[in-house]
Write a structure and sequence with these properties.
mainly beta, nine-stranded antiparallel sheet, 17 strands
């Protein structure tokens, strides 16, 4: 169990091995309560996990899941939402390592339902795990499908304008429409960060290795534009 507290905000993150599940509880005074749980064993989920070389002597490890059904509730100002009844899906990202002194990346992630009702998740990036391997993949009903290198097209000066995300193997083609963002800029001399995480909806197509085409429309997710000096 991991815990964080800052003023009226309290966050608890839980990890279970059997069954393999992750949970989260967030409270903000009496205004907000979030209780959510992802059970990866419920759909025989296949995670994406890799450890790759970075630069001359660095390395990075990533373990990610997306498109996992979420149960629980959100209560805000007296109104309550049942996450299972709302057909909610979630993702989890655990990354660690020794990256380049200066690092820049784009990342896109979504979790939800395809047009035909199947659970779908996407995790693609550019700028970190491209030394011989990539972390790019998507999930369909819990099964992971590898993707090639990915390209992010967007206006760096206007990140809330539409984004285009495609893979060089032609099996991912998505358009992203923004709805809001979290932004942070820090310059501490030896360390610095220029971080933009933009939330919105994805539409487009995915294709499996055997030619199964998956259409998605207005599935919630986010993109990132981040520069970091460690």
């Amino acid at each position: 169990m991991s815990r964080l507290r800052s003023g009226a905000l309290a966050v608890e993150l839980g990890y279970e091995e059997r069954p393999r599940a992750k949970s989260m509880r967030v409270t903000l005074g009496r205004e907000l309560l979030v209780e959510a749980r992802m059970d990866e064993s419920a759909v025989r989920f296949e995670p994406m996990s890799l450890c790759t070389r970075i630069g001359r002597n660095g390395w990075v490890y990533a373990h990610k899941v997306a498109g996992v059904p979420v149960t629980g509730r959100i209560r805000f100002e007296g109104a309550e939402l049942d996450l299972a009844a709302a057909r909610s899906f979630g993702h989890h990202d655990f990354s660690a390592g020794y990256m380049r002194r200066e690092t820049f990346w784009n990342w896109a992630c979504l979790s939800g339902e395809a047009d035909d009702g199947r659970a779908v998740g996407v995790n693609v990036s550019c700028g970190v795990n491209e030394t011989s391997f990539t972390e790019n993949c998507f999930w369909l009903e819990g099964r992971v499908h590898r993707l090639g290198l990915c390209h992010f097209e967007y206006d760096w000066d206007k990140p809330l304008e539409p984004w285009r995300v495609t893979s060089n193997d032609g099996r991912l083609a998505l358009t992203f429409e923004s709805e809001g963002q979290h932004r942070e800029r820090l310059d501490l001399g030896l360390a610095a960060s220029d971080f933009k995480q933009i939330f919105g909806r994805f539409s487009g197509e995915l294709r499996t290795e055997d030619g199964d085409t998956v259409a998605i429309r207005a599935v919630r997710g986010f993109v990132e534009d981040q520069y970091a000096k460690w």
